[in-house]
Amino acid sequence: MIASESISRRRARTLILWLGLAAMALIGRLGFLQLDQGPKLAAAAQLERVHYVPIAALRGPILDRSGRILAVDATGYVVSADPEIMTPAQRSTAARALAPALAQPVGRLMGLLRLKLQYVVLDPDLSPVLAQRLARLALPGVDFTPQERRRYPEGALFGPVVGFVGADGQGLAGVEETYQRQLAGRPGLEREVLDAAGNPLPERDRVLRPPRNGDTLVLTLSATIQALAERALVAEIHRAHARSGRVIVLDPRTGGVLAMAQWPSADPNHPGRYPPADWRNQSVEEAFPPGSTFKPVTAAAALMAGIITPKSEFYDPGYKVVTGHMFHGWEWPNAFGWLNFDHAVALSSDIAFMDIGLKLGARRLLSYARRIHVATPTGIDLPGESPGVWLPLNRIRPMDLATMAFGQTEAVTAIQLASAVAAVADGGVWHRPHVGRELIAPDGRIVRRIGAGPGQRVMSRKVSAEIVKAMTDVVRFGTGTAAKIRGYTMAGKTGTAQLLLHGTFGHHLYMASFVEYGPIPHPRVLVLVQVNDPVGQIYGAEVGAPVAKRIMAETLSVEGILPQRPAPLPAGSQRSVPGFVGAPLATAMATAQRAGLALLVRGRGERVVSQLPLPGDPRPLSGLVQVSVAQSVYLARRVPSALGLSLGEAQALFRAQGLAVRARGAGEVRSQRPRAGTPVRPGMTVELTLRPPPVAWATAP
Length: 701
Description:
By secondary structure, this protein is of the alpha+beta class. It contains 21 helices and 29 strands.
């Protein structure tokens, strides 16, 4: 009995001991977890429960100088479907209902809806109006998801200049790339607390940092002048069967680019449809031999160095031998004989400029080319600028120097050449070219003015005046007479350069160019035209000068720059104002010039829709007629239907057609007068009646 009690006590003590040890181990483990691992485990739990979600900022819009939208963030809708939950009848119904709105064949949509997938994209970018209409159909298995996308209303008009944005919101070309940081803004931050099932819990002050939307970028570019320049360029490229071409229009007083057109171009709304070559900005990224348009730079260098004077004379027999190499002037087999400086420029004597280049020397010519930024990048606010192509100083032979003087050995970009000639036009002051004008914060403050500054003096005012005088003679009686504009004094320079083909100059491959600025003596507009590889007529006087004249005349009208002197009234012309309404703008320009009138153009488009004074009114003493233009394609069409649209959407639709709107009521458009399909007439007003929509927004189940 005693032995049994002793064993029980030992067992009890052993159990208590083990329980004590277990308790001590648990206490130790708990202490370890609480004191040592506690902060780490709490942080891990916090990571499981709390998520930090970025809030996207809206990308800032890009505007032309008059406020026309060139790029903007807008909502599009992704149309998707879940074929797994749809019956065959529902698939068929959905395909037939969606096909007209999505502009896709019913068979293609049926093929997508038969896929054994839970998510199929039917349309990646549907307009909000169509998405709202289709959502009301409540098609089973079909969903409409809003998504912000970058829109470019002007399409290919400004393609490589404006650029485009990639899927990650990064600018990949043009000013979208240059001003990426300013346009992108700063994303915000939101905190989200989840329960055990992963559902968000209601929480105050979820937004830790609100997003800051991007700045608005206003450009120096004008959509009106850009359209005029592109139309004239493309027409000439097609006429001359040329490979490509480019136009720069800028203000020589500031360096602000008014237009930068090229062909071929690319539409930033569909960047993947174009080869990479079409996204290259030809005016900035590609260098070409400038030909005789470079002669003003050579002249400025020689006059500044004192190698020649305005009274210098040159003998041009039509050819020149340099270190055993025979060079012919463009006039060969004819000859100019003795020429003074003005006539050497006006008649574009290659032989005279070979003499000037050899006297000047390679070191001084190259040094001045760097000073005036035709041998260095200009620093324009566009990506990918080429510095040009020049031989190193120690490799320039006399024959290279001789041809370099008239723009044949070196290669420069169009923007380098345009800004250098602009320095001649602006009294010897070089301004850095730029396409950005100002950045505006979301609250309306001007954050930064771009391109403002006094410029850099690169030649004396006296040297500039001498070159301007000689370039005025180019248009007055020299090689550029095709660029004369009635009522204005203009200056210019022709150029015809042989282009490189597989590293050598092609004998039948040329670039025809012309640069023009004016009115003299206070130039406000400069136009540079370059056409690559024209067929038939190859000279700048034949190909470039007429195009530059057309662009310059139309730009002067758009800018409201009146003729310097009243044009003489042509014999037998009418004393009243002719009618321009309904005529293409180019025809109206020609009619006005024949009548001794100048047009002040308002708006953007190809056809005149109104004018003041009215047809038949007495001729104004100023000789100026104001005309408004619109796209001719709209004039040929009929009144569109606005039924079902909101007032804002209807106003945007009719404004694009050049139609005024008068509305009453609120909600959606339920009726309109005139009815859809009525021929459009200039000045027409559309009356709209609006009522609340009969069916509320419905999303697919």
